[in-house]
């Protein structure tokens, strides 16, 4: 997951390996994820799946992020235009 | 792994719930073992592999800050210490007592020659005298000790401050120790069954309260003894 985030963000977002788990625990606690455990080669693996509520929350947050991002881009663009 | 035990201890003191701490520490342990194994396969020595794996996981302070900062992962003991330690033991016991009293009142009312209970009349309830005596003894003397010890064990496990818990246990021991509840089932058809609830204070009661409190505090005394042995 951490590698995927780093690759998708062009290495701009690099998470410490240990800090991902608390985020997963929180998302599970708030009902956005569900998990199941499986023992592979003597070690317990935890597999996470997004719930319907989690997918809804992702959509909401993504939409909110886009609105803010667009708004900031517009403000920055305006300010650059005014300076020029 | 000593680092993980230290992290667990720190997180528990911060108020993160025990189950989340245990799970997090276990996940980190597996993660470090996996990472170290991979590094060893790439040619690193065992010590080097372990150091690299730990470096990848992150600094313990960062891990503690990330986990400790999440409100939803905090335990109820840490969020509401007064409620958990000071109030909940008494409420739990009071509810259990109210429930049992209601059950016996219900039995007496239903059996009042109404034929609802297949006992053949209220005087037949005398057969329930011994079970009732045992039930009230357990309710008044054993249940408070179990509730108190469980609450205290949870608070100790959470590394929380124990002042509220001990105050709550003292209140519970005091209340349960002085309470007297008894039921007398009529042995003959003409007599009436009765249920008596009251409070009584005597030297014997004081000894009982102290004994109950001492039993409730057993987890704390055991922990202190184990800590002394470990040192």
Q: What is the assembly state of the chains in this entry?
A: heterodimer
Biggest sheet: strand arrangement of chain A: 1-2
First-last Cα distance of chain A: 42 Å
Order of helical and strand elements of chain B: HHHHHHHHEEHH
Give the biggest beta sheet of chain B: 2 strands, antiparallel
Q: How would you classify the helix and strand content of chain B by structural class?
A: mainly alpha
Share of helix of chain A, binned: 55-70%
Average pLDDT for all residues of chain A: 87
Termini separation of chain B comes to 19 Å
Number of helices of chain B: 10
What does this structure look like?
The complex is a heterodimer of chains A (84) and B (231). Chain A is of the alpha+beta class. Chain A is 58% helix and 19% strand. Chain A has helices spanning 2-8, 20-29, 52-83; strands at 33-40, 43-50. The N and C termini of chain A lie far apart (42 Å). The model of chain B has no long low-confidence stretch (mean pLDDT 85). Chain B is 71% helix and 5% strand. Chain B is mainly alpha-helical. The A-B interface holds A 16-19, 21-23, 25-26, 29-30, 43-44, 46 and B 20, 23-24, 26-28, 30-31, 33-35, 56-59, 62-63, 66-67, 70, 72-73.
What is the compact description of this entry?
Chain A has 84 residues and is an alpha+beta fold.
Write the layout of secondary structure elements.
The complex is a heterodimer of chains A (84) and B (231).
Chain A: H1 2-8, H2 20-29, E1 33-40, E2 43-50, H3 52-83
Antiparallel strand pairs in A: 1-2
Chain B: H1 2-14, H2 18-41, H3 46-57, H4 60-68, H5 76-79, H6 81-110, H7 129-157, H8 163-178, E1 179-184, E2 194-199, H9 203-216, H10 218-230
Helix pairs in contact in B: 1-2, 1-4, 2-3, 6-7, 6-8, 7-8, 7-9, 7-10, 8-9
Key words describing this protein structure:
A: 84 residues; alpha+beta; 3 helices; 2 strands; elongated; B: mainly alpha; 10 helices
């Amino acid at each position: 997951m951490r590698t995927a985030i780093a690759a998708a963000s062009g290495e701009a977002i690099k998470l410490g390996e240990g800090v991902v788990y608390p985020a997963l625990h929180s998302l599970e606690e708030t009902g956005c994820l569900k998990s199941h455990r499986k023992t592979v080669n003597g070690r317990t693996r935890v597999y996470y799946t997004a719930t319907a509520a989690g997918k809804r929350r992702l959509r909401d947050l993504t939409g909110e992020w886009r609105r803010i991002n667009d708004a900031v881009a517009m403000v920055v663009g305006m300010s650059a235009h005014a300076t020029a | 792994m000593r680092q993980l035990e230290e992290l667990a201890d720190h997180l528990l003191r911060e108020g993160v719930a025990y189950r989340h701490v245990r799970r997090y520490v276990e996940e980190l342990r597996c993660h470090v073992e996996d990472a170290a194994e991979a590094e060893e396969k790439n040619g690193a020595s065992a010590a080097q592999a372990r150091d690299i794996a730990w470096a990848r996981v992150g600094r313990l302070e960062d891990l503690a800050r990330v986990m400790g900062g999440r409100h939803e992962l905090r335990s109820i003991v840490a969020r509401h210490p007064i409620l958990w330690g000071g109030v909940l033991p008494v409420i739990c016991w009071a509810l259990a007592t109210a429930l049992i009293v209601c059950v016996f009142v219900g039995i007496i009312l239903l059996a009042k020659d109404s034929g609802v209970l297949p006992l053949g009349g209220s005087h037949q309830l005398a057969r329930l005298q011994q079970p009732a005596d045992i039930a009230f003894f357990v309710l008044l003397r054993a249940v408070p000790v179990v509730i108190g010890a469980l609450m205290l064990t949870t608070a100790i496990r959470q590394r929380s401050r124990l002042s509220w818990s001990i105050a709550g246990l003292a209140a519970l021991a005091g209340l349960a120790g002085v309470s007297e509840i008894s039921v007398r089932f009529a042995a003959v058809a003409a007599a009436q069954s009765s249920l008596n609830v009251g409070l009584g204070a005597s030297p014997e009661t004081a000894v009982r309260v102290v004994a109950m409190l001492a039993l409730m505090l057993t987890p704390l005394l055991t922990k202190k003894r184990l800590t002394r042995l470990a040192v």
